[in-house]
Amino acid sequence: MVGKWRAIVLNKMEASVHHARYDLLPYGWCFQPEDALLTITDTMSFLEVFLLLALVIYLNSFLYVSRCRRCLNVPAVGCEGFLASYWSAFQFIRKANVILQEGYQKHKNGVFKIPLVDRWLVVVTGDQLLDNLRTAPESVLSMWDAMLDLLQLDHTLGRQFRENPYHDSIIRTTLTRNLATILPNIIDESIHAFPDMIANGKEVDGGWISIDAYDEFSALVCRVLHRVLVGSPVCRNKSYLQLNIQFSAGVTTEATVINAFPRFLQPFIGNLYNKVSGRQTRVLEYLGPEIEERKRKVAELGSDYEGRPDDLISWLMDSAPSALERETSSIALRVLIVNFMGHHSTFTTFTHAIYHLAADPFYADDLREELVMHLSDPEHIENWTEKSLDQCWKLDSFLKETLRVHGIGALALPRKSLVCYTFPNGVVVPPGTLVTACSTATHLDEEKYQEAHRFNGFRFEKLRVRAKTLEQGSKHKVTSTSSSFLAFGGGKHICPGRFFGTLLLKCMMAHLIIHYDIKMENEGVRPKDDWFGPVELPARQGKVLFRKRDG
Ligand code: HEM
C-alpha cells in the first residue's frame, strides 16, 4: 500500500519538478530531479517522502518570494528581506486588516505590496487606480485567473464552473427580472423558518429565547435562499442544508491546503485532494429525484407546464448550454456552486446587521415605524411588494452601512495580471501578479465618509433625503456601487446576485423587526468580529435574544 502511494506521489512529483527546474535556473542552481527521484524511490518511506515534499515546499517558496521581489518595483508594507518577509507573511495571517489599513494610509492614491508565503500581493488605492482595476479587460487583469489561484477552482468547484459560468447570466438576468415573482416565496419561507429557528433556542427570563446566532442564522439564510434555488420541501431538509453550509466552508479550507504547497505541486495535490465528484454524488441524493421528475414532465407536457416551479433548477434546465450541462448531476452541482456564491456573503451580512440591531434597540423602533408606513398593514404579506420594500430607505441604509463597516473581508476586486500591466501612475506589474483593492480601509476612510469608524445605520438614508433629485439619491442605495463602496466588487464581475441578495435580506429583516423584540444576551454590547487573514466574520459565539411581539 505504502509502495503504491509512494509511486503515485513520486510519479506526479516528477512531472511537477520538471517545471520547477525552470524556476530555479535563473539562480544558477543545478537540479536533476530524475536522479534524485531514482534514489529516493528505493530507499525512503512514505513519511520521509512527505517530509521531503515539505522541504521542497519551503525551498520553492523562498525562491519564489525572492524572485517576485526582484520583479516588483513597488514599496512594501512589512519586511522585504529573504527570511523576514516570511515573518510578515505570517503576520498577514494574524492581522491582515491592520496591515492593509497601514498600507492604505501610507500609500494613499498609490500602490503597495505585501509579502504572502509564495508571492507578493499588490494593493492599489485611490479612485483612479481602482477604476483601472474595475475596467481592465479580463484578458489583462483576470478575475477568473485570480479565483483559479485563490480558490483552486478546478479542484474545489470543478472545471465546468470556470469553463462555462452560464449561471452568472441566469442570476444577472432571469433571477433579477423575476424578483417580483419569487418575493412571495421568500416571505412564505421566512414566515415558516423563523419560528422553527426560535424553537431551537433556549428559554431565558421574561419570555426571551436565546439563539446561537452564527449557526442558526447560517441555517436560516440557507433555507430561505434554497427556497428560491430548489423550492420546497427540499429547502427544509436539514441534512441537505448542512451539506450546502459545509460545502462553502470546505471549498475555502481545501483551497487553503492546496495553496500551502508551491505552485508546481498544486495540480498534483489538487488532483489527490479533489472532492468535486464526491460532492456531486451527495447533492444528487437530494436533488436527483426532483430534477428527473421535472425532466419527465417537460418531455411529456412541454417546458411551460402548469405548476412548473420558478426556481434555479428550472432556469438551469432551460439554459444549460450543452448535453453535459443538461445532465442531472451537472445541474445538481451547479446549484451547489450558486449556493457557494450566495450563501456565505448573505448570511454573514444578515448576522452583522442583526448584531447591530440587537446591540442598539433604538434602530428597531425607527425601522418598524418605516415598515408600517410603507407596507401599510405589514401583517398582510400581499402588501409586501418589491416597490414597497424599495421605499424603506432606512432599512436599505442599515444594510448598506452594515456592508460598509463589515463587508465580507478586507480585500476587494482580486485580479491576476495576464500580461505586463502599467497603471496610470507608471507602476508596472509583471504577468502572474495578484492585484487587489482594500475594501475595509476604503470604507473606513475619513475623506470618503464622515466619522467613518462609527456605525451610523441611517447614514445613507440621510444622504438620500438630502439629495437634490431622486436619481442622485439613488446613488446611495445598497445595490449602487462606486470606488467608495466595494462590498459587491465592481466592473464586469460586479456581484450579479446583489439585487436578489439584498431583497432576501430586507424581507428577513422586515419579518424579524415586525414580529420580534430583539437584544444581545450581553445587553448593549455588539460582539467583536473574527478575522482570519483578510476574511471578516461576525462573532461565532454571539447570542441573540428574541421575544415574540404581541399581535
Ligand atoms: C449581501 C450579499 C452578497 C455580497 C456582499 C456579495 C458580494 C460579492 C462580491 C464582492 C463579488 C466579487 C465581485 C468582483 O470581484 O468584482 C461577488 C460575485 C458574485 N456573486 Fe455575490 N454577493 C452577495 C450575494 C450574492 C447572491 C445571493 C448570489 C447568488 C445567488 C451571488 C452570486 C455571485 C456570483 C455568481 C458572483 C461572480 C460574478 C462573476 O463571475 O462575474 N452573490 N459577490
UniProtKB/TrEMBL annotation:
Positions in coiled-coil regions: none
Listed InterPro entries: Cyt_P450 (IPR001128), Cyt_P450_CS (IPR017972), Cyt_P450_E_grp-IV (IPR002403), Cyt_P450_sf (IPR036396)
UniProt xrefs under PROSITE patterns: CYTOCHROME_P450
Membrane spanning residue stretches: 46-65
Cofactor (UniProt): heme
Pfam families in the cross-refs: p450
Annotated GO MF terms: heme binding; iron ion binding; monooxygenase activity; oxidoreductase activity, acting on paired donors, with incorporation or reduction of molecular oxygen
Binding-site residues, heme: 495
Keywords in alphabetical order: Heme, Iron, Membrane, Metal-binding, Monooxygenase, Oxidoreductase, Transmembrane, Transmembrane helix
Domain of life (superkingdom): Eukaryota
Family: Belongs to the cytochrome P450 family.
PANTHER family: CYTOCHROME P450 (PTHR46206), P450, PUTATIVE (EUROFUNG)-RELATED (PTHR46206:SF1)
Protein name from the UniProt record: Cytochrome P450
Lineage, top ranks: Eukaryota, Fungi, Dikarya, Basidiomycota, Agaricomycotina
